[in-house]
Design goal:
single chain, 318 residues, alpha+beta, Beta-clip-like, Serine Threonine Protein Phosphatase 5, Tetratricopeptide repeat, 3 domains, 4-stranded mixed beta sheet, 3-stranded antiparallel beta sheet, 12 helices, globular, SET_domain_protein, SET domain-containing protein, TPR-like_helical_dom_sf
Length: 318
């Protein structure tokens, strides 16, 4: 279904579709190389890997910019020193202590490649970590607690030899400059997707649509006021509709958009707009199923939420 190959001089390795992948297809379902609750556990976790797993971990990307921005050597050395003390090896020969020198690189690999599992843990994956970023991705990753695996699903049809991409950023309808600033600060690269290309007509269209949406959101915030006295469910519903339409025009899908759809369904139901509530609930559930899979506990929770919105209407179990 996919292959790992060279994605270009600035990207390194990437994941490519070896055949046409339909929307809603599970591309990967991978167990972690390691998972931790805090960065202070990373050094010990990597030391606990077998040689093959440790080599695979260390082969993952580690941005030079990220390393210089977010980690001082003294901080890394302290984490390593504490790990060695915990292991009872503080009196080890000098060769053992030289491993501390590796810790800045270990922690930067972790920071550059970890995914949130949603239970207070972060994890690093061998194959999932090879998937590159796009601000308009064709896939989404989420942790399936029932499987104990991080799954990657196609959120639209992916053509043969097309690169599989994820968004490394939370979807907040951010403008180009804000997205690029976050990426350079946290990952050490600038995105080259069409949405970030000011010379691409599609990118200019995305940027203009988001600027208009930001203006509408500011207007909504002004009407609501700091004390919430101006809040109107009808106005909020209109804003939710506009957000969904904007994302659909861009080709953005996934849990964030599905959540907006379900919120819009709740507002429509409260306003007595049953048909609109059903339509938005079904749209949201379809997106969730496509990016999570029917066996995901998160999808199951959304099905129950949709049923409560629509009074158990069968059409919500898409």
């Amino acid at each position: 279904m996919y292959r790992i190959g060279h994605a270009g001089p600035t990207k390194g390795l990437g994941v490519f579709a070896s055949r046409c992948i339909p929307r809603g297809t599970c591309i990967m379902a991978e167990t972690p190389l390691l998972s931790v609750r805090s960065e202070s556990e990373v050094f010990a976790a990597v030391r606990g890997l077998n040689n093959d797993a440790r080599s695979r971990f260390l082969s993952l990307s580690s941005s030079v910019i990220l390393r210089s921005l977010v980690l001082g050597w003294s901080e890394a050395a302290w984490h390593a020193f504490r790990a060695l003390i915990t292991e009872g090896t503080a009196q080890s020969p000098p060769s053992r202590w030289r491993s501390i020198i590796d810790h800045p690189n270990i922690l930067n690999v972790f920071r550059n490649n970890n995914f949130d599992l949603g239970d207070g843990r972060q994890a690093v994956f061998d194959k999932v970590s090879r998937i590159n970023h796009s601000c308009i991705p064709n896939a989404q990753g989420n942790f399936n607690a029932a499987l104990g695996r991080f799954t990657i699903y196609a959120v639209r049809q992916i053509e043969r030899e097309e690169e599989v991409t994820l968004s490394y950023l939370a979807e907040t309808a951010a403008l180009r400059d804000a997205r690029q600033a976050r990426l350079i600060d946290h990952y050490g690269f600038l995105c080259g997707c069409f949405a970030c290309d000011a010379n691409d007509q599609r990118g200019r269209k995305v940027e203009e649509g988001r600027r208009r949406m930001h203006e509408r959101l500011r207007e909504f915030a002004d009407v609501v006021g700091s004390d919430g006295s101006g809040h109107s469910q009808q106005t909020e519903l209109e804003v939710m509709w506009k957000l969904v339409k904007m994302y659909e025009a861009e080709g953005v899908a996934g849990r964030e958009v599905a959540t907006i759809c379900l919120r819009a369904a709740e507002l429509a139901a409260k306003a007595g707009k049953r048909a609109d509530a059903l339509a938005m609930a079904e749209k949201g559930l379809r997106m969730e199923k496509d990016c999570l899979g029917a066996d995901s506990p998160m999808y199951g929770a959304s099905v129950e939420r949709a049923r409560s919105i629509t009074n158990g209407h069968d059409a919500c179990a898409v």
